[in-house]
Amino acid sequence: MFVYNVLLNALQSASYLSTLSAQRLNNTSKADIDIIFFNRATKVGSESMLELFLALEAYNEFTVDKRGLHQIMWTKMERWVQQEIAKRIVDLNEPSVYISHVNWIDFDDFDLPKPIYVNMVRDPVERVVSWYYYIRGSYRNAVAFNKFPNRKVQSEEWFKKNFNDCVRNGDEECQYMPMEVLQHTKDQKSQVLFFCGNNDNCL
């Protein structure tokens, strides 16, 4: 029965995919305001997208709002936090781009006009591996040390640890815990949150 359901779902998905078109996939026409909300999923190439937006800012006469780059990254946001971010976005001058690592926000839920959503996805395993080595990068850690010289520096063993060994040893930073909100490993949360929102069924 399980195999039947999987096959049925696959066939239905294939049938649905054949009906998609560029026009149906483009959300721009459904937006209420001329503001892009790039709620960037982590480790999917969003740094490159950020640089692209900054490079095009003057040429295309729009404003990149960078405040979101400096805010806390929440695994799951309280309703008041979502509302505060949504209000900040709709208050921007048009045209603008707001960039931040935040989950999808339902602007309808706050009776606010909808922006244009932009985001990207990545193979989930590649994404976790990328984060694992990213936090061990010498440049990133040198910048962090200059900012916070009193912060504990990880051991040489930690910097040299291989991802496969980390998984085999069951180290905490290489464990994905479903439904986890308070994560100690910074970036093990599912990228589904960036497209689904802040409800428990998105975790």
Automatic annotation (TrEMBL):
Keywords: Glycoprotein, Golgi apparatus, Membrane, Signal-anchor, Transferase, Transmembrane, Transmembrane helix. SUPFAM superfamilies: P-loop containing nucleoside triphosphate hydrolases. Gene3D superfamilies: P-loop containing nucleotide triphosphate hydrolases. It is found in: Golgi apparatus membrane. This is Sulfotransferase domain-containing protein. It comes from Stomoxys calcitrans (Stable fly). Belongs to the sulfotransferase 3 family. It comes from the Eukaryota. GO terms for cellular component: Golgi membrane. One of its GO terms (molecular function) is sulfotransferase activity. It is a single-pass type II membrane protein.
